[in-house]
Design brief:
The protein is an alpha/beta fold. Helices cover about 45% and strands about 15% of the residues. The chain is globular, with a radius of gyration of 17 Å. The chain starts with 10 loop residues before the first strand and ends in an 8-residue tail after the last strand.
Length: about 250
């Protein structure tokens, strides 16, 4: 019987893949046989992440780049193809945040957040398209609960993550003719170093999130292994243009 989740012979690039959700998605792809390149801004973290993927039995590549730099971002795709001979899966996961009241942001801060969180997705996807258009491929973009809900302390972040959903839909429609499927995942409240700091900064948020989440827990990075494999594999061959919450039911609750 065919394994609908088999990724043997496929190659992937995961931006922001050196820790947290990105690393978990990279590990999920590697477990199913994909060769995986992971990128981040810290070379040592990137190499440690790649080594963890090699320990799962597959090929892995550590790349270092600031995705806000257009040439460096596109170069990640070039380097992946140079190493593996192809790129079948692109996971646009790199992102950053800066929490302030809307009126406190400078235009430079706004642009920096948008360049990292949204423009990089367009740049990397466009670079991947040049290699995928002949044989198809999968693009998975990481959005956020702020793709759906407003956050008073994260206006540019929310705007960028809302843009992720609309860009995902536009690319899915434009590139379906080439066999390229484009989807987004929307993480809920996930326990990562970034949200650990949030819980310290806003002591009441932990109880509020647990009360709103039907699963009654924070998510973990490894909750994203399965959704990454699903969206990258033959199992999702007729799924495109979607934005799937991975949130323990948070978005469905009232």
């Amino acid at each position: 019987m065919t394994d609908l989740f088999d990724l043997t012979g496929r190659s992937a690039l995961v931006t922001g893949g050196t820790s947290g959700i990105g690393l978990a998605m990279a590990q999920g792809l590697a477990r199913k046989g994909a060769s995986v390149a992971v990128s981040g801004r810290d070379a040592a973290k990137a190499e440690a992440a790649a080594e963890s993927l090699r320990a799962l039995g597959g090929e892995a590549l550590a790349l270092t780049a600031d995705v806000a730099d257009e040439a460096a971002c596109a170069g990640l795709v070039t380097d992946t193809v140079a190493a593996f001979g192809r790129i079948d899966i692109l996971v646009n996961n790199a992102g950053t945040n800066l929490r302030k009241a809307p009126e406190a942001y400078t235009v430079e801060e706004w642009r920096a957040l948008m360049d990292t969180n949204l423009t990089s997705v367009f740049v990397a996807s466009k670079a991947a398209f040049a290699h995928m258009k002949a044989n198809g491929g999968r693009i998975i973009n990481t959005g956020s609960m702020t793709s759906i809900f407003g956050a008073p302390f994260a206006a540019p972040y929310s705007a960028s993550k809302g843009g992720i959903v609309q860009l995902t839909k536009a690319l899915a429609v434009a590139w379906a003719q080439y066999g390229i499927l484009v989807n987004a995942v929307l993480p809920g409240w996930i326990a990562t170093p970034l949200t650990d700091q949030l819980r310290k900064d806003v002591p009441t948020i932990n109880d509020a999130i647990l009360a709103r989440t039907p699963a009654a827990r924070w998510g973990r990075p490894d909750d994203f292994e399965g959704i990454a494999v699903f969206l990258a594999s033959p199992a999702s061959a007729f799924v495109s243009g979607t934005a799937i919450p991975v949130d323990g039911g948070y978005a469905a609750a009232v």
